[in-house]
Amino acid sequence: MLIRRAVMDDAPAIARVQVDTWRTAYAGIMPDSVLDGMQYKTRAAQWHQNMSSERTFHEVALFNEKIVGFAASGPERDQVDRYDCEIYALYVLQVHQGKGIGKALVQSAMKELKDRGFKTMLIWVLEANHSARAFYERMGGVQIENTLILRVGGTELTEIAYGYNLSDLVP
Q1: For the structural domain made of 2-169, what CATH number should be given?
Q2: Is the pLDDT of residue 171 over 80?
């Protein structure tokens, strides 16, 4: 496995990981119509645009030279007190989960954020995504009080956040 900074040409592979991971991780949580309607090409265009921002950082995990996971991070977006940065997205293909790839991506993102002067980090997760919540807790995250309500395909979903102190976790 290799973790490296993403480049623009990675956008289609990042989109594929996101779409495929959403379809497995969010089955039974998000409406099927939303998951079935996701398109690689549309997501690739969105990731290409996201990656053009100098405020965000993108890293990919490669296994046998193929992108199997990614993380996107940067400044905190929702004005949550005491947190200055966040991991916006963290996805690893289901077949590659449980191999330390997600942990390596989180650690790499945390190091990047700390090196850029950030001190405290959030990761938002769907409340109903119990496996992701357990992962973030194993990574040292502490659930905070704040929640967000998302409307996805006519369904309301609650997001909760896990907070991290980067100086406690990154040498």
Answers
A1: 3.40.630.30
A2: no
